[in-house]
């Protein structure tokens, strides 16, 4: 760049710096004019602060604003509405709880096919004297023994008071010739073998428990006699278990 050109550039920059403040000042003046017009138009607007005490007009932020105009006029109406809402929601909650409990009980109760298995009827005429029959009831084996006169006599004459689980034979049977018991060893739940063991009754091979002809524990680790289930004789030759 030549010397005259540099000189002319410097002169024009200097001139621009001097005129710039005037150019910048012009918009400010316009803004001030606008604000003045706006102030003039809103100078009559009123704002009633809810924090003013009222009499002196002195502002006090500790005053609680009044919301009276938003409240209903009657205290009784408010209480009636509150009681209604509480009662309605209480009723709905109780209804929901009742339905929940009812559904739970319905789901948990036994279905029709399970109830049908709850009782089992056995024709006793088909079981000869001196024989065992095993049936399934509620998933467990049930022993039915048609006892002979000798077996009844033996069971009856046993000195039961000194046994591990003392029980008279008469407490374990409804008819002396029919002995009905769960076929589950009272030690750990194996199924004992009939007409076996040292006492002519049942023998559990799992750990060597011996039961007599009344199903009472006589020897081995089992702690209790074989359990007698609920049963009945609706007719002479009919047995219902359960
Ligand atoms: S389960 Fe019968 S003796 Fe152990």
UniProtKB/TrEMBL annotation:
Write out the entry's keywords from A to Z.
Answer: 2Fe-2S, Disulfide bond, Electron transport, Iron, Iron-sulfur, Membrane, Metal-binding, Mitochondrion, Respiratory chain, Transmembrane, Transmembrane helix, Transport
The EC number on file is: 7.1.1.8
Kindly state one GO CC term assigned in the UniProt record.
mitochondrial inner membrane
What membrane topology does the UniProt entry give?
Answer: Single-pass membrane protein
Checking PROSITE patterns in the record gives: RIESKE
Task: Write out the catalysed reaction.
Answer: a quinol + 2 Fe(III)-[cytochrome c](out) = a quinone + 2 Fe(II)-[cytochrome c](out) + 2 H(+)(out)
Give the enzyme class: translocase
Q: Which family does it belong to?
A: Belongs to the Rieske iron-sulfur protein family.
Q: What is this protein called?
A: Cytochrome b-c1 complex subunit Rieske, mitochondrial
Originating organism: Cladosporium halotolerans
The taxonomy runs: Eukaryota, Fungi, Dikarya, Ascomycota, Pezizomycotina
């Amino acid at each position: 760049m030549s010397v005259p050109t540099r000189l002319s550039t410097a002169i024009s920059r200097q001139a621009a710096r001097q005129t710039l403040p005037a150019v910048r000042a012009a918009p400010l003046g316009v803004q001030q004019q606008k604000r003045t017009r706006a102030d003039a138009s809103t100078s009559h607007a009123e704002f009633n602060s809810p924090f003013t005490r009222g009499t002196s007009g002195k502002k006090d932020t500790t005053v609680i604003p009044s919301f009276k105009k938003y409240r209903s006029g009657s205290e009784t109406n408010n209480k009636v509405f509150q009681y209604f809402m509480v009662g309605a929601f209480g009723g709905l909650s109780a209804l929901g709880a009742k339905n929940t409990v009812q559904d739970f009980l319905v789901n948990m109760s036994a279905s029709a096919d399970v109830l049908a298995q709850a009782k089992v009827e056995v024709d006793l005429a088909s079981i000869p004297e001196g024989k065992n029959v095993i049936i399934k009831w509620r998933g467990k084996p049930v022993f039915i023994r048609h006892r002979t006169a000798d077996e009844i006599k033996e069971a009856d004459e046993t000195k039961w008071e000194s046994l591990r689980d003392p029980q008279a034979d008469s407490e374990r049977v409804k008819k002396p010739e029919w002995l009905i018991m769960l076929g589950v060893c009272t030690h750990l739940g194996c199924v004992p073998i009939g007409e076996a063991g040292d006492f002519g009754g049942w023998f559990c091979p799992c750990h060597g428990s011996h039961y007599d002809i009344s199903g009472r524990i006589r020897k081995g680790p089992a702690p209790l006699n074989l359990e007698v289930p609920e049963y009945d004789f609706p007719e002479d030759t009919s047995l219902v278990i359960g």
